[in-house]
Amino acid sequence: MSRLLASTVAESLLAFWAEAGVDAVLLDAPPDRIAEGQRPLAPRQAPAPVIRGGTQIAVPARPLAIEAAREAASACGTLESLAEAIEAFEGCPIRFEGAATRSVFSRGPADAPVVVIGEAPGAEEDRSGRPFVGKAGQMLDRMLDAIGLTDRAFITNTVFWRPPGNRTPTPEEQLACKPFVEQAIRLVRPRMLLLVGAPATRSMLEQAEGINRLHGRWFEWRATAGDLELPVLPTFHPAFLMRTPSAKAMAWADLKTFAERLDRPGRP
Ligand code: URA
């Protein structure tokens, strides 16, 4: 193998590992994972599962974490202060799991007509501090561009820290972050929400069914405090579409449905 080819192969392998969450190889001293995992939270208090149609769709996050998140989020009157409150929030366990270096909140205009909610930041997002800036983000941008939403979407995630190994955030982690997501929606005041992927749909709509059944169907999202209701459409996650090109036609149909309703005069 030529030197050039070997280095290209090595670079591509390293990029693959980094994307999959492998961020350490051999260290001089063994890492103390127990110390890293120390959480500044109260012990879990017998959570009651949320059951819909016989399926458990959520467990309450530690009550203290949710309460702290609600208090911190509701005190924020601007997106800037909300970003600061998220950065200071210690109630979501992911931020202590070692993969995340910083919080990743949002990108897009503060008065966007649409809020897009994804799953969780990945490696690129963790590096840059902005959501959806990696390959899935480029795909999302193309999807939004196709329906005339370039620079008209406020983009965020169900959790604000990169889960280790890019695993799916748990319902508990999503619940701890949800008051911040809801406050972001309250501050942006969009006309509609677009949920990309199953984890975002599960968190925002508390639906047990899979994304294959839910995509392209309209739901009414209601804030936990009951002060805000908006039309919401789930569709496929761009990372899924990159792995499954055959689903692109369905996603395109979803996006057309979304754009048609957005352009309706009055309440969409
Ligand atoms: N996938 C997501 O769901 N969110 C991001 O920010 C990046 C990739």
Describe the protein's topology.
Blueprint: H1 3-19, H2 33-36, E1 50-52, E2 55-58, H3 63-74, H4 79-88, E3 114-118, H5 123-128, H6 135-146, E4 153-157, H7 171-188, E5 192-196, H8 198-205, H9 211-214, E6 219-222, E7 229-235, H10 238-243, H11 248-262
Parallel strand pairs: 3-4, 3-5, 5-7
Antiparallel strand pairs: 1-2, 6-7
Helix pairs in contact: 3-7, 7-8
This protein binds uracil (URA).
The site of uracil has 13 residues, from helix 6.
Task: Give a written overview of the molecule.
This protein is of the alpha/beta class and 268 residues long. It has a single domain, classed as 3-Layer(aba) Sandwich (Uracil-DNA Glycosylase, subunit E). The protein is built from eleven helices and seven strands. The strands form two sheets. A five-stranded mixed sheet has the order 4-3-5-7-6. A two-stranded antiparallel sheet has the order 1-2. Helix 3 packs parallel to helix 7 and helix 7 crosses helix 8. The longest helix has 18 residues. The protein starts with a helix and ends in a 6-residue tail after the last helix. Bound molecules: uracil.
